[in-house]
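Below is how a single chain appears once it has passed through the pipeline. First comes the sequence as given, then the structure the pipeline wrote out for it. We keep one example in the README because the format questions we get most often are answered faster by looking than by reading.
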Amino acid sequence: GDGIFHFFFPEQGLVVPGAFIPGADSHSRAYGAYGAIGMGVGSTTLGFGWSTGSIYFTLAKQRRVVLDGTLQPWVNGKDIVLELLRRWGAAQSQGMGVEFVDASKQIPIPFRNTICNMMAEAEAQNGLFAQDDITTEWFAERGIELAYPRIAPGADAVYAIDEAFDLGDVVPMVAKPFSPGNAFPADEVAKERIVFDKAMIGSCTNGGYDDLLGAALLLRAARGIGLDRIAAGREFLIFPGSGLVKRQIEQPDRRLGGDSIAEVFRAAGGQIRDSWCGPCFGQGPDSLSAGQRAITTFNRNWQNRMGLGGEGYLASPAVVAASALVGYMAPPSELGLTWDADAFG
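Resulting structure:
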């Protein structure tokens, strides 16, 4: 009942800046959001590490991505990484270690978690945001002591590729089957009126409290303009990232006028599931059947990934929530809501 370990470990202080964490799950790369090196390894390598205290790996070439510019309305960490995967194309990251620089200090830990998590889909050895004030504050708010001095790249650091990424160019995105890099602006996708059977928010990629709050804020605002229920014939399913998150979303939140996130989801027709990964890899009652289609915040939409014969489309919590209301894949702007940074940011 503790939840998905990519969320559970940081909550418990088991992931801290400066740590080196090999894990037998490819999305262990998510730990880079917290200033740690997280990398996926095979079970044999992990067993060797348990036995000896060491593992062997090839030191990857480094690739730096400097994130600058101003985040646009409704843009989430998911949109940033989908746009990055789209730009990288078939070659993706070429197996490098990807170091992200938040030049204007505007990317919060939940966004970073999504970006680093999906460096698995980018075929990177790891993704990393070096510890900065945003990292330190996140741990301080939770009373977690940091074990290591702050580590940063030296002046003589060498990058095989050094690239700039303007956040101002990123819009809400949707990745079509069968690749996370097969991404398109959500407003263009909306013109196609692509319908679906299930809308799912959560997983190790977007299952944190702030991820779910972002979707709930949109749903509550939509209620004010008469969109108070999900479209007929759709399922709306929420998978909290951990047992702690599942408990937290039952508590009142002032940003929701005293409602809880769970209450807002249920009022719109959503169902809160246990914290687990099932439909993300085609397991359990919520996985896709042949011919079914889903829009989700999961991290992979490869062929048969979410269920034999099913099709997965990837998007941010805000895009998934908006799509659930209108019944086809669309960004929040399709609802007629006006962006307000104080209300939705």
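The mean pLDDT is 95.

See the next section for the split statistics.
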